[in-house]
Amino acid sequence: MEMQLSEGLQIRRMTREDLPLLAAWAAEAFPVDKTGMRWTKETMFHHMGDDFRDEHSFVVEDDSGLVGGILAYPCKYDRGDELFLHTIVVREDKRKEGVGKIFLQWFVKYAKAQGKTGIRLDAHIGLPSFAWYEQFGFSPTGWQQQLLEL
């Protein structure tokens, strides 16, 4: 399954072979000084790999190769069948070019076409992506993660 996203951008289903590169980009996007979390390529790879399902996960490519990815999986909440957007990441040299925006807009249409009632995600309030998601209509649910360190 491959389709045109926009001029020069193609979408295809994500494979497990895409994860190492996407994990490296994602680890770079979560700096410890902003999140308090110490992501490395290896820890992000395991985190993404634990939740990887190819059914609703996609990558975007151009002539230079992999440009970004959306890792998502189905979930059920009080509103019914939803998708949990685990990770969206764009290669650093392609950020600020609108690739993420086009990709997320496509993903929202995809979720609607699949009959989903919503898309959920976790967003760190200290990162610019938190406000970026609000541009697409995402809003806080009121739930906040809590951690007991052992």
UniProtKB/TrEMBL annotation:
InterPro entries: AcTrfase_GNAT_prd, Acyl_CoA_acyltransferase, GNAT_dom. Gene3D superfamilies: 3.40.630.30. Residues 9-150 form the N-acetyltransferase domain. One of its GO terms (molecular function) is acyltransferase activity, transferring groups other than amino-acyl groups. This is N-acetyltransferase domain-containing protein. The lineage of its organism: Bacteria, Candidatus Gottesmaniibacteriota.
